[in-house]
Structure formats: structure tokens, C-alpha cells
């Protein structure tokens, strides 16, 4: 005789059902018959804890909570049954029918999987074919909705491709959903009421609704009708949708644009007008803010503008207006004065051009704007007065991408460039740059290049040939703008005469005894120390040695590498000498590339050795000139009892001259 358990299991698999049992607490629960894998397509161990509702695989939205109600009803009445949907995986929904009995503190149940035709939210095959044939090709959205059972809420059972594409949904994420599941809660409940009203009345109705789907706002006009079917317990509600979303967006956009345009015209400081292009230039339109501009209470259309023009400006304005022709449509600008209602005059900037006809055969119009620039004109007048009185020049300096220079703006009372026509400088700055002292021009151009490349401020002092042909010291300070789309650089700055300041600084440096460039002693300080050391040598019958050092071919360094590089070489020479000399020794820069070194208590032979060591250090040192070598010639002389400062310097200078004449880069003693 076959085993009953095996026979029951085979029958359950063939008929597609599960039989389960559990204690009252739900702790001991098990399948008696059936295969969850065949029934639901999932492993059995994933359903082992299915007794409580929250242990069950996620129930689909339309029937969420029905199984819990069934269990509660069975506990109260002993037996219950229901149909519900279960989501298995992300894309599969199963409709199940379950019967449960609660008796003697134990649970028993049987679950049966419904076929597609048995699902309450699936259309009968014949109806489904007809619906797809009718509605799938339509460009407008169409849906069908019905109740799974009498008294339940309406659910969508069909959506045509046009609707699903508009909502970015797949068919399986639409079918079986309630309006509340797809739209916002309030919108879904409102749509649910419309569908129910149509279902109950049995009459067609048109509904305009604004529905929120995700972040989108949909404007739908829906025509709802009822479709009865002999094969279903509840009727279908058919909805045809005309999507007005894009139209509504366009309408709102146009309305907003109109409001913004009107607001801009009424609040803008510029008055917009359109008039006939020929005398007497009758106005076709003028914005309302003209009344506010002129302080008038009358309508802007009734204002006679030409009557309010300053008498001295009328002829100039009429000539300007007559210059507009249909053949020349370029924009033109004029400033003139217009009388305010309080009697004073405003400076108005009129910018206009001939427009194209708004329609074929229409007459072109002169359109333009009137802008109150009184404040700007006042400030400009003040600026012109100020620039005429400041002791210098205010300028704009421009370098285009091709390296051409110009002065777009130049104002002030400085005499340096007074003899040059500003219009010529606005085209080409070379006439101004030629006024720079030839020795200073490379330094100036290098500073301009550095400022343009790094975007830093330009600050430089140089000598300029004035209108009286005399050299004057000036300082230029300017700030560059970021390069525009053309690649040009524009500096804004001032040029000030500092000749008196430079002269005073020179006198102060002479008094302080310090060379400004190198920080070494200057000639004045050297003479003081020579006088002291020579006096000491005479009193104590000591000796001292003087070395004169001159760099070889220093002009080539300036010509090749620029004055900035030359200055750095001079500073480097000073540091090399300081590193080699004793603390009591003195090194001074006499001027240019010539240095003097005072060696107290030093005999001629020791001075010669030191001079040779300095010569070698200079020749071997890398001054950062791309490998170019710097050399020096040195002349050495020892103090004699009958020497004064001039004779000692003269003997050292003759030794230096001999070193230069006999080949340079050498040391010569007297």
C-alpha cells in the first residue's frame, strides 16, 4: 500500500497547492505537503517562517494586509479564506488563494496558486485582446481600472504604451496598482473618487486634474466611461487621457514672461520707445516709466519729448535723428539734456537703431532706449576736473595678443606726453614708449612682461624725456585686468613725477653712506674709512692695501639679459666679497660695476693673494645666466707714507687699467 504522506505530496505538486500546520504560538510550523519552489518559484527555506504576516514575502500593494485580516478572522471564527497577491522577486507577482482553519489551539492551512485567468486584476483573454487592439496604437494615454472584489478600491489593470512611456513605467509596475500608489496620496484619493463616481453613475464624464507623479506635475484631461463585461463581477472604468502638461507649461511660461517683461519695462531705469524713422518722429510706443523718469503725472504716450529738449541741444538731436536710414541699421548713441517736471535738466543717453519690420510690408521703426546718465555725467565732469589738477597722469595701457601697445585712456596735467596727440597714443603707444630713457627701456618692458604673465601689479621707476628734452624720474603703478576673450591685457594706473623725491633720496643715501642696490658702503663711506685707516697707519707706522675691482664686459650682461639680471649680478658680487673678507675689511660700490676693497693692516703680497682668490671665486660662480661666465679685473695698491686718498686711489686705478688693457680677468699690482 503506498505511503499516504508521499501520495499527498505528489498530489499537491500536481495540483499546485501547499498544506501547512502550526501551533497556536506559531513557533512550530512546517509544510505537510507541496513544493514552494514549484508553487512560487522560491526555495522552501525562504518560506519556513511564513506564519505571521510580517514573515510572509512582501505582499503586493493592492492586497497588502489581507492575509493578516484572514488570520485574525480565522482565530475569531475558526475558519477563513482570502485571495491576495505576493511579490516574489523584483518582477514576479503571484495571486494566491488561501484557506485557514484554527481548531484546538492549532493552525492548518492550504494555499493554492491562481492561474492568470483566475486573478481578479487580469482582464479576460478576449477582452484583453480587444483592448490591446483598440488602445495600444493610440497616441493618447488610455487606462482601465476595476475593483478586485465588490467593496475593494479601484486598481489599474491596463495602461497602453503611450501612457506607460509618458510615466516611465513598465506594464508590471502599473497593473494592479491603485491611484494612491502611483501619484501623491491626495491626488490618488481624488482620482479614486472620480473613478468611483463614473463607475457608480455608469455615465461618461470629463475630468481635469493636476497630478503629481514623482517630481513631475501632470495636467490631464480625462474622459471616463464604464465598460461592462459578462465575465467579471465588477465593471471596468476606461480613462482616455489628453496630456496638457506641455501646453500648461508653455502657457505658464508665456504668462510669466509677459509679467516679467511688463515688470522690467515699468521698473527698468531705461525707457523703451519706438517711433517713425522720419520727421516729426511720431511715437508708436513708449514705456510707462517715462513718466517716472520726468516726474510727470500724465500718460507717457502723451508726453512731447522734443518740446522738453534743451534749446542748445535741439539742432544736434534732430541732425542725429536724421542720420538714421533704412540702409544703415547700426546702433548709434547721443547724449543731450531733457527737462524734468521740476524744471531742472537731466542728461539723457539715447541709444537707437532702425529695426526690421515686424511683418511683411510694415514700415521699419526707429527703436531705442532713453537712460538717465545725469549722475554719470556729473561724475565724469568732476573726474575731468580732478585729472586736470592732479600732479601726474591717469592711464589705461593695453597690450594686444600680437604684442602691440596702446593707451586707450590718458588724462592729467603731466607735461611728459603733452606734445603727443592722445588719439595717436590710443592707436599706438610707441610714440610714448620712445620717450623712456634708452638705458631704462629694457627694464620697463621686462616689468610689463612679468606683470602680464603673472597677473601681478606693475610698479616701476624709470627716467622719461619730458617735453623740455630733460630727463625726469617717474613712477608707474598699475594693476592688470584678467585677459579678455581676445587675449589682450589692460592695465589701469597712474604715472607720477618723482624727480624731486629721487634727488632727495640720493642726497640721503650719500649722507647715510649706503649703496641702495647692494647694501654695501658707498663712495662717501669708503672715503671716511680710508681717511681713518690712513691716519692710523701713519701714527702707528702700519700699512694697508686697496683693491679696485671692475666686472669685465658688464654692458653685455645688461644688453643680453636685461637690467634686472645685471642688478642681480652686482648683488651677487657683493655677497661673494663679503663671504671672503674679514670683518674689519671694507667693500664699497663706487658706481656701476666698479667696487673698492679696503684691507687694513694688510701688506701688498697678502692683498694680491686675496685679490686672486676673489677673481677665481667670481669666475667659478654661477650667476644664473644660462651658463654664461662672469669675470673681473682687479688692481692692487699698498699705502705709502706720503699718500693721501686721491693718490692711493689713483695708483690702484692705474693697476686696474693695466689689468683691463692686458686682457682682463686678471690681478695687477703696482
Explain this structure to me?
The structure is a single chain. The protein has a five-stranded antiparallel sheet with strand order 2-1-5-4-3. The protein has a five-stranded antiparallel sheet with strand order 7-6-10-9-8. It has a five-stranded antiparallel sheet with strand order 12-11-15-14-13, with helices on both faces. By secondary structure, it is of the alpha+beta class. The chain is 36% helix and 29% strand. It is elongated and about 145 Å long. It has five domains: 4-113, PAS domain (Beta-Lactamase, 2-Layer Sandwich), CATH 3.30.450; 125-248, 2-Layer Sandwich (Beta-Lactamase), CATH 3.30.450.20; 268-373, Beta-Lactamase (2-Layer Sandwich); 390-502, PAS domain (Beta-Lactamase); 513-669, Reverse transcriptase/Diguanylate cyclase domain (Alpha-Beta Plaits, 2-Layer Sandwich). It contains 20 helices and 25 strands.
Content of β-strand: 25-35%
Low-confidence blocks of residues:
51-55
**Global shape:** elongated
* Radius of gyration over C-alpha positions, nearest whole angstrom: 51 Å
In short:
The protein is of the alpha+beta class and 670 residues long.
